[in-house]
Amino acid sequence: MKKGTKKLVTGLFTAGLAFGLVACSGNETSNSEENRSEKSDELSGEVTLWTASLAGEPFDTYFDNIEKKFEELHPDLDVIIEDIPQNEMEKKVLTSLTGDDVPDVVNLNPHYMSNIAAQGGLLDLTELLNEETKKSFVEGAYVAGFYDEKLYALPWYLTTTVSWYNGDHFEQAGITETPADFKGVYETAKAVTEATGKPSFYQVINDGNTIIEKMATLANGGPIVKDGKAVFANNKAILEYFTLTQKMYQEGLMPQENAEGSFSGGQELYMAGNVSFLESGVTFLGPIESGAPDIYAASKAGQPLSGADAPMNVAVMNFAVPSKSQNPDAAVALTEFVLNAENQLEFAKTAGTVLPSTLESLEDDYFQNPGDSQKALGMLEASKSLERSKVLLKATKNSALLRESAKNAFVRNLQGKVTPEEALKELEAEWNESFEKTDEKVTF
Amino acid sequence: MKSKILGKRISVYVLMVLITVITVGPFLVTLFMALKSPGEGIYEGILPQDPTMVNFIDSFEKANFGTYFLNTVIVTVMAVPLNLLFCSLAAYPLARMDFRGRGLALALIISTMMVPFQLYMAPLFQIAGELGLRNTHLGLVILQVSTAFGIFLMRQAYLRVPKELEESAYLDGANKFQVWYKIALPIVKPTIITLAIYTFTFTWGDYLWPLLNTTKSGMYTLSIGLAQLSQNFDGSNMKLISAASILTTIPTLLIFIWLQKYFVSGQTDGAVKG
Fold first, then answer.
1. pLDDT at A247
2. Subunit contact A9:B116, Cβ cutoff 8 A
3. Which residue of A has its CA nearest to B60?
4. Is the same domain home to A420 and A377?
5. Where does the UniProt annotation place the signal sequence (chain A) (predicted)?
């Protein structure tokens, strides 16, 4: 689909769903309130939970156990757990909210969560949870469930950034450790490219989110947006990042394909041995293990390619309760149950590549000694970087535009169409214009 | 002169081989990838060094292919005859009968083709729920039981049927239904086959509507299984996805090969007369 057509279709889709949601919202609130007022001591009826892209083993067995254990606690309750492909989760939840077949608990990422919450599709959990539950989570992950100062979701599993590198390529170049700042990234990339004759560094861009996160990391605790005004154009570290990535791209230290910048593109290049190091989550290695066993065996994990104390972003997967849930009490209880320390620890062990969001489960010995597989070593690095991780970006009304303009600015800079200074100035101006329109005085 | 003809022939064959490589190439690469053993990298040469069927077996199990395959077969078997029946019935009056509002009816039907599915999927979801079609095979095919495209295609085909044939049937005492069934329908057989193939391929690969209209994974179809595989939590296993894609494509391929002689002749029907 062409970009314009895609935008039109997406616009029409959102407009259609928004209309549907507004039309249904009158019943929505009263339904939920009515349902909550009928609260009884014992939970009964049906409660449906949707997970995102967790079909098949080992997850089927894990969720069968969850189902069984929760039903034992509440014999009159029937728990149904279904899996939905992650990319369609938002569409599926929004569509279901226009009818009566609404799930009771849904697994969302913060982008989907804030969009659905903005349209009145999620239950405000602020008053429905006790303080003990709220305090059981890692602070940085917990705040990701807020939208407009209300708590709409609780954190489940987390992914933090680590660096992955091809140990054989590094050895060829005589490099023993990953760089800790962007100057170091440039020097390492140069040495590895000289040794292998191929581009060596890949910057994941995705829809622009990783670039904004990187900018926030480089700002090292200072804001990149202050009271709804972008304030990064004169930041030396960010300017250096834009300057060096442009230089690396021009010198062939980064592959031409980096202008597309997708996560899967990076995986393919790494799998084919055509790049040697990058920053990503632990799950990055999944397809490498099956698609390129030799590269997998040579892969090593390190800390993110930033200063040792620089704040890192944590990617959170949440659980939220749709506002039209027919069984909100059971939904909240099931959410708390799935997210308790014991079940989260079990899930993290089952998945093998993610971290739990409860403080208690993170203290388990498993995260200090996860094993010696490549993924386990990645987990170890991830749990170390979790200490300085938090959600760096705030959910804003214009977040899609912020991501898109960051991507465009980064790519134009990469390709040398603008100077790094111009790219940052233009990006700052675009963001400021957007914040003026939405009138949001956010700081992040 | 002879060498000129030979040169021309060679260049035509080179072009044909090139086009074949471009069209069949990706399919073969997918097949070879699916045949690679777990220890072999997907970028280590095109041909599998130690061909194995293990990815086909794994993908069959992991993507719950048995159930999804059965669901897909059921919905396709329902959708194809229903769409053929309703489209060929609806198109005939639009091509052959004079009644007030015929042009408007045709314009309204065709205009529905211009509305993106994303715009009406929410109300459709509501209606399907109210009609009790959620999580049912009939609910999954509801979009295919009568399509605007099918009606238009069939109408164009009916316009090509010589009026004289129908008139002589009327003179022999046939009624309208008999003329449609015994005269017009056999003549437009290639178009019917074309529509059958279109409906088959569309229903077989339909993804968004089956996903939206099901809240039980036991009702999922193959395309949803494929999406689950490719959006797997632990990243996509390209060998498994390739094997699953091949398994999903085989029935469509077989149907196409079986019906292709009709398909080719019927494909140009819509363009002949407007």
1. 97
2. yes
3. A56
4. no
5. 1-23
